[in-house]
Design goal:
Number of domains: 4
Largest sheet: 5 strands, antiparallel
Shape: elongated
Strand content: 15-25%
Low-confidence stretches: 1-5, 525-532
Mean pLDDT: 77
Length: 660
């Protein structure tokens, strides 16, 4: 994979991923999806985005999905679990799903990302293997039981045979004794009696020997049978043990393969997160690139004003005391106003560039439209006329100001591209109330309508059907990424708002966005609090590598009654602080400097003089410095360019608001 920051590759990977990737707002509404997700659910991206995610979950799985969503919103992580997804045709697919939170820069959960993969051949093979293992285990148990039953049957037969032999011996002994008794009773001669007695005794002895022989044979056969039974039992146990070992080995192989698959899945998820970050950055870079031309044009105009009026002032002063000081003062005023316009332009551009994390707050859409108008003028060019109609008493909404700015710029750029020969771009706002009987998709209640229209070429129904899909564009190759309107749709979904399009070929296009009204009260800002300086000779250490800015800053502070120590870099500042015996009340330092950052200067100075307050100054916005690790979130910062009044107010606030 290429290094982060390659938007083309990140776009290609997202589009070609085989995993179904879906992004949702905290409310459960789908805000984005990739082609694999569209294929899994059997619907186009425009049909999926904006829908509640539960319509693609079978009813019997929705309780589990709701539990998973609440766990994610509470800050938990669900690595992987098996569940089911619902195709539009009603069929159900078995999937492995993984859910992770989408966090803003402050670590707050603002959404949910899910990645689903259909159960593949590996899992099916594992299931078939487990079934085969269970079948063979049952067969082995049945065979062992049959062997034991047969052994018991042979043992009973052997004992029965021994009993029959013993009964036969007793019977023959009784017959011999009966014969001897009858012979003694019937015989007259003693010799015959004795001879028959001998014959009877011999017959009895032979019978006894034969009985003993039979008993021995039966016992030996029983011993041999017991040996065969024990041998067969041992063989059966060995076969069972070998079978169990084979089962464990195959299960280990299956588990290893599953772990490898999970590792690949985790790596794919990390790649997806990186690509999402790159995608957001590429969207912002695209808009900033479109603004660059207009900004350069305005700065050239301002620089021309400053240079020429400065020349006029120089010419008036060269004349001497007889010069026209009134004209010179008027020219100086023009220079100051041009500089103030340049400063405002810079602050607007930085404010737009630093909007990365979503920070929803109570907003007045009229104020946002008015403040972003200069950016819109530079985006659409001089051939397009921008008209606004902002309703009085507009109700407040809960939204991120940066997202509203990006939404307006994206729609303005889209309208500009549709008006090649020029035209009119109109933006209007209004309060609307939706009743329960209207049958609208909107919830009943109060809403704010934001409408952006143009007099361009318009769109056909086929184009409208795909206009919100990521990477869809009607522009030639190499012009645009097809992300502008997809980004707009994602922002609208996060606002839990709706967007509608009115257009037809040749009659222009109007986007109507309806946003729910919030009942929350806007937080009071402390930026407007006045801090009246009461200088008492406090000492301020200035560290600034730009000589001209260092000198003018020193002049402002000295004129206000402060004692100033100025240094061009961190090493010189620390050396001056070490030589100074008195207290240094405030360190005013640039953030990004050669050899030593402002934070490093502050850390070393606070070691020497721990009671010193610190105020940073920088041309970079604070979120940019924070993301680079150059500045902490709670640091005090004044952004360049600043006026003398703003500098004095902030210095006085730090010194007088934190008495030593």
């Amino acid at each position: 994979m290429k290094a982060a920051g390659d938007p083309a590759e990140s776009i290609s990977i997202v589009a070609s991923s085989h995993d179904a990737i879906v992004g949702m707002a905290a409310s459960g509404v789908i805000t984005s999806c990739n082609p694999a997700a569209a294929a899994m659910y059997g619907a186009g991206a425009s049909e999926i985005i904006g829908q509640p995610a539960e319509i693609f979950v079978p009813p019997w799985c929705r309780g589990e999905e709701a539990t998973v969503l609440h766990r994610i919103l509470d800050g938990d992580v669900v690595e992987q679990y098996r569940t089911e997804r619902l195709h539009r045709d009603g069929s159900v697919a078995q999937v492995w799903a993984s859910v992770s939170p989408i966090l803003d820069a402050g670590g707050v959960v603002v959404g949910v990302a899910t990645v689903s993969r259909q159960v593949g051949a590996l899992q099916k093979a594992s299931d078939r293997f487990e079934i085969r293992v269970d079948q063979q285990r049952v067969e082995a148990r049945d065979a062992t039981e049959r062997l034991v039953l047969r052994a018991d049957q042979h043992r009973v037969e052997a004992h029965d045979a021994a009993d029959r032999y013993a009964d036969q011996i007793v019977l023959e002994r009784e017959r011999a004794e009966d014969a001897a008794d009858r012979f003694e009773a019937a015989a007259d001669l003693p010799s015959r009696i004795r001879q028959h007695q001998v014959d009877a005794d011999e017959a009895s002895a032979r019978l006894q020997r034969r009985a003993e022989q039979h008993r021995t044979e039966v016992y030996d056969e029983s011993i041999r049978f017991e040996g065969r039974v024990d041998l067969e039992r041992e063989q059966a146990q060995d076969a069972t043990d070998r079978f169990e070992v084979q089962v464990l080995l195959e299960r280990a192989h299956v588990q290893q393969a599953l772990k490898q698959s999970e590792g690949e899945y985790a790596e794919a998820r990390r790649d997806r997160e990186n690509m999402e970050a790159q995608l957001q950055q590429s969207q912002r870079l695209e808009v900033l690139g479109q603004l660059a031309g207009g900004v350069a044009h305005d700065f050239n105009n301002l620089i021309a004003v400053i240079l020429n009026y400065a020349t006029f002032v120089g010419e008036e002063l060269d004349i001497g005391p007889t010069g026209d000081l009134v004209t010179a003062c008027r020219d100086v005023g023009q220079i100051r106003r041009a500089a103030e316009r340049a400063s405002a332009l810079t602050h607007q551009l930085l404010a737009f560039a630093r909007r990365e994390a979503v920070r929803q707050q109570v907003l007045d859409l009229n104020r946002v439209v008015a403040e972003v108008r200069q950016l819109l003028d530079r985006s659409i060019g001089e051939h397009v006329v921008l008209r606004t109609d902002l309703a009085d008493g507009l109700w407040p909404v809960m939204a991120d100001e940066g997202q509203i700015e990006q939404l307006l710029v994206n729609l303005a750029v889209n309208a500009r591209d549709a008006m090649h020969g020029g035209g009119v771009l109109s933006i209007d706002t209004a309060n609307v109330t939706v009743g329960p009987e209207t049958g609208s998709r909107l919830l009943a209640g109060r809403h704010v309508r934001l409408r952006v229209g143009d007099t361009g070429t318009g769109m056909s129904a086929d184009v409208v059907a795909h206009v919100f899909e990521p990477f869809f564009t009607t522009k030639p190759d190499g012009i645009g990424t097809g992300l502008g309107l997809a980004t707009v749709y994602g922002i609208v979904a996060q606002l839990e708002a709706t967007i509608e399009i009115e257009t037809s070929p040749g009659s222009g296009t109007t986007f109507t966005i309806t946003i729910p009204v919030t009942h929350e009260v806007a937080a009071q800002s402390e930026d407007g609090l006045a801090h009246h300086p009461v200088p008492a000779g406090e000492t301020i250490l200035i560290v600034e590598d730009e000589e001209a800015l260092r000198e003018v800053t020193e002049r402002i502070l000295v004129r206000s009654g402060y004692r100033v120590i100025a240094a061009a870099d961190g090493a010189a500042a620390l050396a001056a602080a070490a030589e100074y015996d008195g207290e240094i009340h405030l360190l005013l330092t640039d953030v990004i400097m050669p050899h030593m950052l402002g934070t490093q200067v502050a850390e070393k100075l606070l070691f020497l003089k721990p009671d010193t307050e610190v105020l940073y100054m920088s041309g970079y916005a604070q979120p940019v410095l924070t993301s680079r690790g150059a500045l902490s979130r709670d640091a005090h910062l004044i952004e360049k360019p600043f006026s003398s009044a703003k500098l004095i107010a902030q210095v006085a606030h730090l010194i007088n608001g934190h008495p030593h």
